[in-house]
Amino acid sequence: MYCEYAHSMGFSVRKEHLSYWIHTRIIKCRAFCCAKAGLKRVRPSPKKYRKLETRTGCLACIYFTTDTEGRNWTVTKFVEEHNHPLAMENEQHLLRSARSISKMQGSLIKNLTDAGVKTVHAYNFLSNEVGGFENVGFSKSDAYNFVQREKKALIERGDSLSLLKILQEKQLEDNMFSYDVRTDELSRLTSFFWMDGQSKIDYDCYGDVVIFDTTYRLNKYNLACAPFIAVNNHWQNVFVGGAFISEESIDSFCWVFNTFLKFVGGKLPTTIFTDQDQAMAVAIERVFTGTRHRLCQWHISKKAPSKVPCFNNEKTVRGLFYQCMSKCDSELEFDRYWNEMISRGNLQENRWLGDLHRARRNWSTAFNKDVLDLGILSTQRSESANNGLHGCSKATSTLVECFMGLEKLVGSWRRGERDEDFRCKQGAVSLKVRSCAMLKHVSKFYTSKMFVRFEQAFMEGAAGVCVVDETRHDEDNYLYVTKLCDGSDDKRWFVSYNSKTNETACSCRGFETRGILCKHILRIYNLKNLREIPPVYLLKRFCRDAKKGIYLPNTPGIIECNSNLIFRNHLMRFAYDLANRVENSKDAKAHVLGRLHVLANEADEIVEAVEMRRRGLSDENDKNTPLVRDPVKKKPKGISNARLKGYWETGSKKPSKTINLLKIVITLIN
């Protein structure tokens, strides 16, 4: 009541004296005063920014007293006069006690900022909705302070303990969620790893080829982000586990890999791609025994011009190097091109190429034709996750912010996967050759993205591959020799075919490495007029129902509202539609209101029971959670928090070398 009076008059209110009746919590006296009441002590402040003095010693106030039961309130003192000018009508929305952020406004600001919208833009959106800044109910600085309070609330118990609390809450929500942390001798957090239920399902379906990289350090503790990335049936990234580690050592990588295997039941990936990190290579050899370790060709090709100078001006030598990287079908072919490159470029003494040749089995495709790699040559998919995290973290980001940022990125990937699943279910792929029975058969099996890859190989085989020779060994077995029709390459590919079982094999080993039949085999199938692809050559990981039998989707008809704002909007729309349907019937309105009261009471009981259960589990977790301290704060290399200097500030005051040289020349002439 007093606040409404004060705001209409043009001054702000502050709480003052408060007393209780003896041995009770019943208010006896409550006082409110003008916000300019009293005077502050004048203290010298070394800070550059000093707040304005707003206290003027104003005596305006109001005192309330109550009876012993606290029911009847009586005004016992009221001072109306002020010793300062009052706010104008168009300034009253700036009064401190008149500004507050409601629960709905706070929820909207939080949802917008979580979605990547800047705070100032969220504030502008609210002002447009209510018809101006004066009608919002709070100022722009209040919005910034609210966002900062929300961020601090996430780490109120300390960064590491707040992160552990979030991980424990996720474990309560998801029974398949797993995590582990690692500390040093001072109980400081050094590494943590997590994997949710969806990641375990994705790894079970698509975990044959995994990409692992640690190329991103941007947080206040300089921890490296180390995600495990796989490729799904839509040729999209899927997150199958992640870690943050303080140091890239053999011991740290061994801990990450052992934890990963523990959470996936010991199932090893067929192939893992990494960069040229020696500690990572040793850890993979120790933990991922039986997994083929491949190096990123992009990193190698990026280093090549600086390590081998002749690559910059001799295209033939450089072309031979790239031929060795990914265009050789056998080890003999690799050796032939490699020796030719060495002799043409006189590179016998190049130490970098010598080291690269010794590790050729880890980077050249010629030595990995017997294992599945999906045709992947680099770790760019993992680095795309790091680039995505760059947008939601910075050098001062906390562990909680980095974790939530990566979770948000993973959520966007999973939304993209659901969108592609929907597109595949609701539509059919248009065929380039509509009368082709084989394409019709495959289009019903593959997803749209994978069908496009298969169709490209089919068309290249039909139009670009010629059969040079045919040899019949017996009644069922044939051997075909194929080449490119345009004559751009004299290479020959040998395809064996069994007419009884339709089993085939090609010397390029395209199916063994990419999981899709190569154009040479498809040319032979086309020659033999096969109408369907044998089931053994259709991998389930690429089909539309790759997760069938493993993953059960949400129950139809139930809307999953993870956001409070979305739930409120959905519920309000539902209630509005219901009100429109019953507004003309008195009995229907009475029935709806009665049922709503019953539902409200039942909902309160459910919420109270869930809160008590959560509080009990939270207390139990607090007792069982070990004391984990925050990691040591480190500044990332190359990152500075200092103000960037302007153009004139960066100008060198020392004379340049050219000016000094001119002075010397002039002196010699004179």
Automatic annotation (TrEMBL):
<keyword id="KW-0479">Metal-binding</keyword>
<protein>
    <submittedName>
        <fullName>Protein FAR1-RELATED SEQUENCE 7</fullName>
    </submittedName>
</protein>
<dbReference type="Pfam" id="PF10551">
    <property type="entry name" value="MULE"/>
</dbReference>
<keyword id="KW-0863">Zinc-finger</keyword>
<feature type="region of interest" description="Disordered">
    <location>
        <begin position="618"/>
        <end position="637"/>
    </location>
</feature>
<dbReference type="InterPro" id="IPR018289">
    <property type="entry name" value="MULE_transposase_dom"/>
</dbReference>
<dbReference type="InterPro" id="IPR004330">
    <property type="entry name" value="FAR1_DNA_bnd_dom"/>
</dbReference>
<dbReference type="Pfam" id="PF03101">
    <property type="entry name" value="FAR1"/>
</dbReference>
<dbReference type="GO" id="GO:0008270">
    <property type="term" value="F:zinc ion binding"/>
</dbReference>
<dbReference type="InterPro" id="IPR006564">
    <property type="entry name" value="Znf_PMZ"/>
</dbReference>
<feature type="domain" description="SWIM-type">
    <location>
        <begin position="493"/>
        <end position="529"/>
    </location>
</feature>
<dbReference type="InterPro" id="IPR007527">
    <property type="entry name" value="Znf_SWIM"/>
</dbReference>
<dbReference type="Pfam" id="PF04434">
    <property type="entry name" value="SWIM"/>
</dbReference>
<keyword id="KW-0862">Zinc</keyword>
